[in-house]
Amino acid sequence: MKYLECYKEGYRKLATAGVPEAELDARLLLEYICGTNRNDLLVHGDREVAEQHLTAYEAAIAKRMERIPLQHITGEQDFMGLTFRVNEHVLIPRQDTEILVEEILKDMQDYCRILDMCTGSGCILISLLHYNNWCEGVGVDISPLALQKAKENGKNLLPEEKRPVWLESNLFEKVEGKFDVIVSNPPYIRSEVIGTLMPEVKDHEPMNALDGTEDGLYFYREIVRLAPEFLKKEGKLYFEIGHDQGADVSELLEHAGFREIHVVKDYAGLDRVVYATL
Ligand code: GLN
């Protein structure tokens, strides 16, 4: 079968199965399998696709029709210009989270100590360490399986001297020392909302990376309560938040004695990041 026909067939199947962005996913899967890029569809559509690629493409399309996330099929997701390995044990890095990383980068200095609470794939911490020098990083997660991925990503993406320490811990339980920056994109979805999410998310992403308990604020409360002990004077705490959590999280920070509390919007104009100074 020719490349273009192959793509059209994939697209048709995904669209019929009601997969969102069927066109894009059909193309990305084909490119992933054939090792091609966007150009190939435009200029080499009449090339024959090798038998083994055809079989692999059909299998990938069948998986995507079952609403398995594209990133679980390819095993990767780009974030901050780096390619992270992902699986069902880590939250797939989101573009929105780049806002959080960029906000920290604006203010971050070389030689700082940084803690990433609920690190998941490690995407936040690894990006920060990649774009700075001589910093010390600690990435914490309660899930040993998530930490395995984070560690793999650290190895793939950072030179040895920049790699962080990965720590299996229930929040701050095993954390030691003081930090200049503490960052967290914790689970923040209200439990009752989880059932309404897309099947890709609710059926395939780790529940313990999504569920922020009844009011969605559990992890913010705990982290705000415990972080001061682990922050240096003038240290900063950064959170990613849900679009309707800006006021609640700001209030938590204020009550805990933080100052200079800022809420930052994402490109859609929604509240996405809150940060404050101790
Ligand atoms: N810190 C990771 C991320 O931003 C994981 C977040 C989570 O599991 N809630 O992708």
Q: Can you walk me through this structure?
A:
The chain is built from 12 helices and 9 strands. By secondary structure, the protein is of the alpha/beta class. It has 2 domains: 3-66, Helicase, Ruva Protein, domain 3, CATH 1.10.8; 76-277, 3-Layer(aba) Sandwich (Rossmann fold). Helix 1 (3-16) runs parallel beside helix 4. It is elongated, with a radius of gyration of 21 Å.
| Strands in their spatial order, largest beta sheet | 5-4-3-6-7-9-8
* Beta strand %: 15-25%
Count the helices. How many? 12
Whole-number tally of structural domains = 2
Mean pLDDT metric: 96
CATH superfamily of the largest domain: Vaccinia Virus protein VP39
Q: Kindly name the structural category.
A: alpha/beta
Shape annotation: elongated
Task: Give the CATH topology of the largest domain.
Answer: Rossmann fold
- What does the oligomeric state look like here? single chain
CATH architecture of the largest domain: 3-Layer(aba) Sandwich
Bound molecules: glutamine
Radius of gyration of CA atoms, rounded to a whole number? 21 Å
List the secondary-structure elements in sequence, H or E. HHHHHEEHEHEHEEHHHEHEE
Low-confidence stretches: none
Quick one: biggest sheet?
A: 7 strands, mixed
